[in-house]
Amino acid sequence: MIDSEIPRDHPRYASLVTRHRIEAGVERGITSKQGLIAQGRGEAFDYLLGERTLPSADAAARAAAAHLLSANRPVISVNGNVAALVPEETIALAGVVGADLEVNLFNRTEERMEAIADHLHAHGATEIKGLTGDGEIPGLAHARGTVDADGIESADVVVVPLEDGDRAEALAAMGKTEIVIDLNPGSRSPRTADVPIIDNVLRAVPNMTAHARELADASPAELQAIRETFDPEATLAAAERAIREGEFADEE
Ligand code: ATP
To answer: How far does residue 155's CA lie from ligand 1's centre (Å)?
Structure first.
C-alpha cells in the first residue's frame, strides 16, 4: 500500500499514514523493530491529545524556531522513525534555519546509518552527518554516545525528535540547548528539554518550518524575547491537562 491509497476522509487518516510509513521504514531497513514499539507508544499519546497540535505545542514550535534561527551551530538529529515519517519535512526545516542533519541512532549499526543517509539523499538532502562517528556524548556507552565531532558534539542547539531519555539527559549535561519533539509529556526526554514540543513529528516539523519562515526577518531582540518568554514547565503542564481533561483543556 502507498500513502495515496489510504482514503483521505478516513477519520484516522493521519494515524494510518503514520503506521504505513513506519512499516515501510522497517521493510527498507531504516526503522528498527524498537522503532515500531516507540511508534505504538506515540500513537496512544496522540490519541489522548486529540491528534491535534495544542496551542502550547504551537508556542513551543515557535520558540524552537527562534532558538534555531539564533544558533551558531544548529543540528537536527535524525533517527529511524524520523527518517521514515518526515524525511522531506526535516530536510526543509534544516534548509530554512541553516541546520546540519545528523543521523543518530539509539541502536547504531553501519547498515542502518547508511540506509537512512541514502534515504535522506533520495529525498533531496545534500550533506548528511553522523557516518564519521569521530565524536562522543560523554557519559554514554560507546555505540550510544557516538556522534560526529563537527556535528552534534560541537552543536549549540540540537533538535532531537523522539530521543531516548538517557541521551537527552547526557546532551543537556553537555550544555546544549535541546529541543525535543515527543508525544509523551511524562517522558524523560521532553522533561529534560529547554524546549519540549508535545506533538506528533508529522505536525511538529512542518510547523517549526512555518514559524521559522515567518520569523526569518525578526530582529535578534525579537528572537530573544520569544526564547525567553517560553516556559517549558507550562508547556508540559498544558499537555498533561489536555490528556486528563480532554478536548478543550489547552484552549482557555
Ligand atoms: P524516556 O526514555 O525519554 O523516559 P521512553 O522510554 O518512553 O522515554 P523511547 O521509547 O525511547 O522513550 O522513545 C519513544 C518516545 O517517542 C515515546 O515517548 C513516544 O511517545 C514518542 N513518539 C513515538 N512516535 C512519535 C511521533 N510520531 N511523534 C512524536 N513522538 C513520538
So the answer is: 23
Cα–Cα distance for residue pair 20/72, rounded to 1 Å: 37
The reply to whether 22 falls in a domain is no
> Domain tally for the chain?
1
* Cα separation, 41 vs 26, whole angstroms: 17
Let me know if residue 44 belongs to a domain. no
Range of the domain at 185: 55-245
Residue type, 142: H
Check which CATH number belongs to the domain holding 229 and give it: 3.40.50.12640
Looking at residue 78, the DSSP 8-state letter turns out to be E
Nearest CA to ligand 1 atom 16: 162
The three-class DSSP label of residue 126 is coil
Mutate to test the pocket of ligand 1, among 19, 187, 207 (most ligand atoms within 8 A of CB): 187
Spatial CA neighbour of 45 closest among 15, 71, 20: 15
Within a domain: 126: yes
Helices first, then strands: H and E counts in the chain: 12, 8
* CA pair distance 178, 198, nearest whole angstrom: 14
Return per-residue pLDDT of the chain as tens, 252 residues. Answer: 567 777 888 878 878 888 999 999 999 999 999 999 999 999 999 999 999 999 999 999 999 999 999 999 999 999 999 999 999 999 999 999 999 999 999 889 999 999 999 999 999 999 999 999 999 999 998 788 999 999 999 999 999 999 889 999 999 999 999 999 999 999 999 999 999 999 999 999 999 999 999 999 999 999 999 999 999 999 999 999 999 998 667 775
Task: Establish whether residue 187 lines the binding site of ligand 1, counting it when its CB lies within 6 angstroms of any ligand atom.
Answer: yes
Tell me whether residue 40 is in a domain.
no
